[in-house]
Amino acid sequence: MASARLYLDWNATSPLHPAAREAVLRALDLFGNPNSVHGEGRAARAAIEGARRHVAALTGGDPAHVIFTSGATEAANMVLTPDFRMGRTPLPMGHLYYSAIEHPAVREGGRFAKVDTTEIAVTSDGVVDLDALRSLLEAHDKTSGLPMVAIMLVNNETGIVQPIKEAAEIVHASGGLLVVDAVQAAGRLALDINALGADFMIVSSHKIGGPKGVGALVTRGEVLMPRPLIHGGGQEKGHRSGTENSLAVIGFGAAAQAAVAEFDARNRAVTQLRDRLENEMRAAAPDVVIYGADGSRVSNTTFFTLPGLKAETGQIAFDLEGVALSAGSACSSGKVGESHVLTAMGRDPKLGALRISLGFSTTEDDIDKAVAAFAKIAARRRPAGEAA
Fold first, then answer.
1. Helix, strand or coil for residue 106?
2. Closest listed residue to residue 101, CA positions, set 161, 171, 142, 155
3. For residue 120, how many other CB atoms are within 10 A of its CB?
């Protein structure tokens, strides 16, 4: 086994950014309840509101429209509901339509009954099928309520960017609402909730170098809002009760601020590393299949299949070489199963695929080590057609 571990699983979670670490350490002295009116409470509140401004800047939104949650999963469960209000007037959502490549937090449908959800097909290139979306919305039963559509901006397995602006036009023409999971896009694409046409955007702290256990639901406005998922003291302007997790929120804000400040340099460097990695992978194993390589992807993600190597076997092999990577999404309590993303793309999910994802501290030396491990593992695969 390699003497030093190499972390290449940034899409699962990012190491803590130094700025976020420092912010959390400073926040340990802000012990006041941010909802108290005394000086200690006001100091904590000021820090939280600063973080809210940084998350708003990351998403192109308004700080007043950032709702902190315990993470992206809670944000999805909050917004994916038939129970909406326009002011005090009920305005139900009649059906949820979600792309076939969504994260399980969205695929589960939130608070919609399963019978009231429908999957939107994607193309063989891993891009949501806009014609299929248009057909579904044309057939939507408007007497049941408005249609809600959920499409991620960047797929967590492939890194493929989805046509959100075009989807938004289709959704809004039908009178519907668009929810965009931007978890894997934050810090890797320049986000603007208004320019994208998203009505709601979901982001997560630990994907951009912040602490785990905090995320946000960002809205374009506050006229049309979902019924709260968590009730209580009315924090977050009544949208999400419970005393805010000050330490995590402040760390999230610092990570968001760093992601904006370092955006150009970070993405330029990561793109160069990713391209070099893939070129050397192809040189070591010409039959490697890299998904989305000819399309629009974020800069840090390589999702690939090595013929003759099962995903679970490959993940273990890389781990024994000291390289941490994923067999797709890290969202199923460590399980390595068939990829629903490959299935949706019309690929054989039994082939399996592995995901390498890079981040702000990845180096050229890391790529050297990754390529060496890849070449070693590729060389000892079972020949094609040989029994596993």
1. helix
2. 155
3. 23
pTM value is 0.94
- β-sheet bridge partners, residue 150: 98, 179
pLDDT, one tens digit per residue, over 347-374 is 887 777 999 999 999 999 999 999 999 9
Question: Measured between alpha carbons, how far is 29 from 40 in angstroms, rounded to an integer?
Answer: 10
189 forms bridges with which residues in the sheet? 186
What is the residue type of 144? Answer: S
State the chain's maximal CA–CA distance in angstroms.
72
For residue 103, give both structure tokens: 């994260």
CA angle centred on 26, ends 20 and 28, rounded to 5°: 105
Tokens coding 351: 């082939």
Residue 180, C-beta contacts closer than 8 angstroms, at least 6 positions apart = 150, 151, 152, 153, 164, 193, 196, 198, 200, 201, 202
Identify the three-state secondary structure at position 303: strand
Contact 327, 310 (CB under 8 A): no
Spatial distance between the Cα atoms of 71 and 117, rounded to a whole number of angstroms? 23
Rounded distance between C-alpha atoms, residue 123 and residue 166, angstroms: 15
Residue 127 φ then ψ, to 5°: -110, 140
Backbone angles phi, psi at 358, to 5 degrees: -105, 170
Provide the pairing of β-strand 301-305 with 354-357. antiparallel
Both tokens of 143, joined, read 């007497």
Output the six-digit token pair for 165: 């602006």
Residue range 279-334, pLDDT digits in tens: 999 999 999 999 999 999 999 999 999 999 999 999 999 999 999 999 865 454 45
Judge contact between 120 and 153, C-beta under 8 A: no
Cβ–Cβ under 8 Å, residues 260 and 209: no
- Would you call 385 exposed, middle or buried from its count of C-beta atoms within 10 A (0-12, 13-18, 19+)? exposed
pLDDT at 351: 77
Catalytic positions are 331
